[in-house]
Design goal:
single chain; alpha+beta; Metal Binding Protein, Guanine Nucleotide Exchange Factor, Chain A; nine-stranded mixed sheet; five-stranded antiparallel sheet; about 25% strand; binds zinc ion
């Protein structure tokens, strides 16, 4: 929901984790808008968020004040790399800050705040994307095809880099060069592993199992043509704040297709969400569950994440006991970060939970992303996703029924 955090010529910027245990604020002058964010698409960022990227904004307030606040907080520290430390909420997994060595040589590090944890302030053009970095890691361009046209003016397009901004090859355009063959070979299993490796699972190729089912027996998330699993654009407040990115991308999997990376014929990965929740706290907890842990974000919703690096892993609900939403960023596809050999993407479809962004700065951003993804789908000659066709047909049928 949008909030009215405006004060005369400055705007209050609020960063807060999902469980609300941690909250940081500062004021930014209106004249400094839009603020500039960086999207990092590197392998490590995808594996530490579970998303297709990490998104940071240099903290726009006093460096010494935020340093003091973070260092005296109970935020959990994670050594992301030799030079970068991440700060996350231990309870709900939201990553709020990254500390990197100060560019001016100060002993006090520079802090970036994840854009997903920022309140949805009702100020248009609040944040522009300045750079997309480490695109070469994605192999397929990742999310950049729909993240290059959302800035406040068309003159301010983000710059694209194969590696670091300013010191790697600058890429001229996303267009079609990032499209990969949709029917790339699929290995028997694809690793599902977080940045620290504490969550070390595999997704067994589900397509042969789905292919032999009658179409009427397919789970709702399976594309009846390709037998791939739906991949969508999720902008719900809870997924945004817990992952730290503004748009999260889930696919879906039956728990029967998830396995431990080290198989053992005597015990298997839990086959229902109830068994999974119970397995975490069992006195006979399987050590192969590793660092997998869970936050109950509402009475029937469980968010599974890595307790060490905070990567989002699964979203589960009591009502869908046989399946989970699965973080696409953890899928270690050999073909590309979008894992198109397994995922039937709803490019250009309406983002789910779009009502959550209404009235805030993200509303225009999401609309432009939907439109860019639709142009890209059409440019690649892809049909509308099956799920979108189903929804459009249902809406048309309901409208026709209303007329009668
Ligand atoms: Zn929290
Ligand atoms: Zn990165
Ligand atoms: Zn981890």
């Amino acid at each position: 929901m949008a909030d009215n955090a405006t004060q005369n010529d400055s705007i209050e910027l609020v960063a807060e984790c999902l469980c609300k245990a941690h909250r940081f604020t500062t004021h930014v002058p209106r004249s400094s808008l839009p603020l500039s964010s960086i999207y990092c698409h590197c392998d490590s960022c995808r594996r530490v968020t579970g998303a297709l990227y990490s998104t940071y904004l240099p903290w726009p307030g006093s460096r010494s004040s935020i340093h003091e606040r973070i260092q005296t907080s109970r935020l959990k520290r994670y050594a992301f790399s030799e030079s970068t430390t991440l700060f996350s909420c231990e309870t709900c997994s939201s990553t709020l800050f990254a500390a990197t060595p100060a560019r001016d040589g100060s002993d006090v590090p520079d802090y970036g705040v994840t854009t997903g944890v920022l309140h949805n302030t009702s100020v248009p053009n609040f944040i522009d994307i300045a750079h997309h970095i480490f695109l070469s890691d994605t192999k397929d361009g990742g999310a950049t095809p729909w993240l290059c046209d959302s800035n406040s003016s068309s003159a301010a397009r983000p710059r694209l880099w194969s590696g670091r901004s300013g010191s790697s090859e600058e890429l001229s355009s996303t267009d079609h060069k990032w499209a990969l063959p949709l029917n790339a070979p699929i290995p028997a299993s694809t690793p599902v592993r977080c940045h620290c490796g504490g969550v070390d699972l595999v997704l067994r190729n589900p397509i042969p199992d789905f292919a032999v089912l009658n179409r009427s027996e397919l789970p709702w998330f399976v594309d009846p043509e390709s037998n791939k699993s739906l991949g969508g654009f999720d902008v719900c407040d809870s997924c945004r704040v817990s992952s730290g990115v503004d748009i999260f991308h889930w696919t879906f999997a039956q728990l029967a297709h998830i396995a431990f990376a080290t198989p053992d014929s005597s015990s298997h990965f839990p086959s229902s969400t109830h068994d999974l929740a119970a397995a975490l706290t069992s006195p006979h907890r399987d050590p192969r569950l590793g660092t997998l842990t869970m936050y109950q974000s509402s009475s029937d919703v469980q968010r599974y994440f890595c307790s060490a690096c905070s990567a989002a892993v699964f979203y589960a609900t009591d009502a869908r006991a046989e399946m989970v939403d699965l973080s696409i960023g953890l899928l270690r596809s050999s073909h590309g970060s979008r894992a198109e050999e397994l995922v039937s993407w709803d490019f250009g479809g309406r983002a789910v939970w779009r009502e959550d962004v209404a009235g805030g700065w993200r509303e225009g951003f999401i609309q432009s992303v939907e439109a860019a993804a639709e142009r890209w789908r059409i440019g690649r000659g892809l049909p509308k996703n099956f799920r979108r066709v189903q929804k459009e047909e249902a809406a048309a049928a309901a409208a026709a029924a209303d007329q009668e």
